[in-house]
Amino acid sequence: MKFYRGIGAALVLLAGSGAHADLIDLGTLGGATSQAWAIQSNGRVVVGVSDNGSGQQAFVYQVNAGFTGGTITALDFLTGGSAAEARAINASGLIVGYSSDSGAIDQAVSWTGTSPTLITNTLLGSGARALGVSTGGTVVGWANDEVPGVGVVQRAFVSVGGVMSALDLTGLNPQHDPNAGLNARALGISPDGRYVVGEYEIDNGAGGFDVHGFVYDRTSPLSSYELSAGGVGSARASNNGFAVGSIFNGGDLVAGFSTHATNSSNYLPTLGSSGRGNAINASGVVVGGEDLGAGIEAVLWDAAALGATVTNLNSLHSTGNILNEATGVADISGVYTGWGTFGGQTHGFLLTPNAPSSAPEPATLAFLVLGGTLVIIRRRR
């Protein structure tokens, strides 16, 4: 396995320019808290979950033309439901997540407008959550499956045209066996629909299990592999053949990414003791959170394929609010979302440059072909 560390100079983006940005409080649906989970690639729409005064409700936030604010709107529950979360949105505006039903069981749903559509769990269990959606509308997440003699097991699923099927991940590591009650969850899918990423449990041989991240190549399943080091890992998002998440480096959980072409990978640099990557845009800009000692704060890594420069997002705004977790990054320059502490309450945020560009963040040939330093054990099918 070949590793690269600190190749070249970092690209000059908003993070490296010293410029300050506008911080937008997304507000709530009437309660005290909200969390933003994802942003559309054009930076115009944010989705998440908000306290509505009596429970948790999915929302969509439409950003205005000047990127100076917007409007938060509630997304409906399934009939009889009372809780929902929106977790991902694609370039066409299709939103996916989950809503409770009349039996108070979470079910995977999609929203076009504000009305939910059930993504039927065609496995043997009841209940599912949708957590990612490709540009073409392929949905991924996890669904409960009933294994005879074992009970309910979570299975990573892919849904195409509303037809749900479980991912067979047993070839990545023979110690992952859903028939032994080991769970798997798909947490994201690349915009082109090729790569599904997530985490699954493996038998650690000591009466318990470890969690390993996985990258499943739907075009070439034999090229699929797992991320594992020290028994802990999770992949959360994918774009342009790169995956981001967290992995055990012998001391801390740190953000990482990998390339599929070379299967080389990186520990992204840290500002504190540990961290995780939550999202990656088309140019390889990664956002996430890091433990800086006094708590988790939102960070970004620019030019990841060139070795990455890490920046605390709180250094990009001049307000007294603290951004705790970054969960989404648009393809246009300098637009990020997540949640932070506003007046002692957790609210979703949108961070934008004072004059956002409609052009994608800069990309280089090195981003397309190089990897870096996160330790990954590759197990091919």
Characterize this entry briefly.
The chain has 381 residues and is an all-beta fold.
Description:
The protein has 381 residues and is mainly β. It has one domain (14-369): TolB, C-terminal domain (Neuraminidase, 6 Propeller), CATH 2.120.10.30. It has 2 helices and 28 strands. It has a 4-stranded antiparallel beta sheet, with no helix packed on it. Strands 2-3-4-5 form a 4-stranded antiparallel beta sheet, with no helix packed on it. It has a 4-stranded antiparallel beta sheet with strand order 6-7-8-9, with no helix packed on it. A hairpin with a 5-residue loop joins strand 22 (274-280) and strand 23 (286-291). The longest helix is centred in the C-terminal third of the chain and has 5 residues, at 365-369.
Topology (SSEs and partners):
Layout: H1 14-17, E1 21-25, E2 34-39, E3 45-51, E4 56-63, E5 70-74, E6 84-89, E7 95-100, E8 106-112, E9 115-118, E10 128-133, E11 139-147, E12 151-160, E13 163-166, E14 184-189, E15 195-203, E16 209-217, E17 225-227, E18 233-239, E19 242-248, E20 253-259, E21 265-267, E22 274-280, E23 286-291, E24 296-302, E25 309-312, E26 322-329, E27 336-342, E28 345-353, H2 365-369
Antiparallel strand pairs: 1-28, 2-3, 3-4, 4-5, 6-7, 7-8, 8-9, 10-11, 11-12, 12-13, 14-15, 15-16, 16-17, 18-19, 19-20, 20-21, 22-23, 23-24, 24-25, 26-27, 27-28
